Amino acid sequence: EYYAAAPAQWDAPMVSRPRRPAPSRARRKPRRSPLPFLALLLGLALFAGGFLMGRVEAAGNRAAQAAAGAGAASGGPVRILAVPGAVHSGTEDAPASGEAGGTSDSRDDWNLILVNGDHPLPQDFQIPEFTQLINGHAIDKRAYPALQRMMDDCRAAGLEPTICSSYRSWEKQEELFQRKVQSCLPQAGSLEEAEEQAAVWVARPGTSEHQAGLAVDIVDKSYQLLDERQEDTAVQKWLMEHCAEYGFILRYPTEKSDLTGVGYEPWHYRYVGEQAAGDIMSRGLCLEEYLENA
Ligand SMILES: [Zn+2]
């Protein structure tokens, strides 16, 4: 949809990274050698580093929160490893409301919301709660645990996935769209024509899945351009094979553009829950086709 700017360094929340592992281990095995002293020095250095990083991350979180215009307004670091019982975790499909233990998906489920050119989000659309990610990214809290697992497992496979886009506010989408309109204007005959052309590349405000907080653009750290060659990267090969296991789908597959209204995007992943994702990916559907029968 748009080119990622600077390479992102990290995407997952800080909670997955232990802060000071070294000092405590050193302290458990005291020895008569310079090691304890060195460990103490190292510990102090790590502590200072951790403190600084904490500040940087906190600043990043504040920025993300400001950008999101919402979010969990807890003062300190975001700690969302355990998912409260009231919130559906990403590892299970949310049962349809009023349907005890129901397994059938309905297009009314939060995870199956359809957002495209024909189905814009209502202007008052609200995401109940965000999880802030590193680098100013954010995602619907209900989809976060699954995203974290997917990223962790992808890394465990020796790969370097990088989130380059996530939740976008209405204002941000408007800004991206208007920027594209301005760049189309010189060639277009009218403003309307420029908007038509721009909409091919950047979703009109309200019609981007990123505004629903359930989509992430993930690239390979070694190749961060958003073009078709992204599909050849090791990260995309892994994600396309495994994303459904985590409840994500490749939202804009090749040869479905006439149905999705969006060109092939081998980097845009959308959370729909494991049940729908398994169905969609194994049957080679797009979300529009799946929801026709849901
Ligand atoms: Zn995207």
Written overview of the protein:
The protein is α+β, with helices and mostly antiparallel strands and 294 residues long. Among the domains are: 20-68; 104-168 and 208-294, Muramoyl-pentapeptide Carboxypeptidase, domain 2 (2-Layer Sandwich), CATH 3.30.1380. Helices cover 37% and strands 8% of the residues. The chain contains nine helices and six strands. The chain has helices at residues 21-28, 35-68, 144-156, 170-184, 191-201, 234-242, 257-260, 274-283, 287-292, and strands spanning 130-132, 138-140, 161-165, 215-220, 248-250, 268-271. The strands form two sheets. The chain has a four-stranded antiparallel beta sheet with strand order 3-4-6-5. Strands 1-2 form a two-stranded antiparallel ribbon. A hairpin with a 5-residue loop joins β1 (130-132) and β2. The radius of gyration is 21 Å and the shape is globular. The structure holds zinc ion. Zinc ion is lined by residues 1, 165, 210, 215, 217, 268.
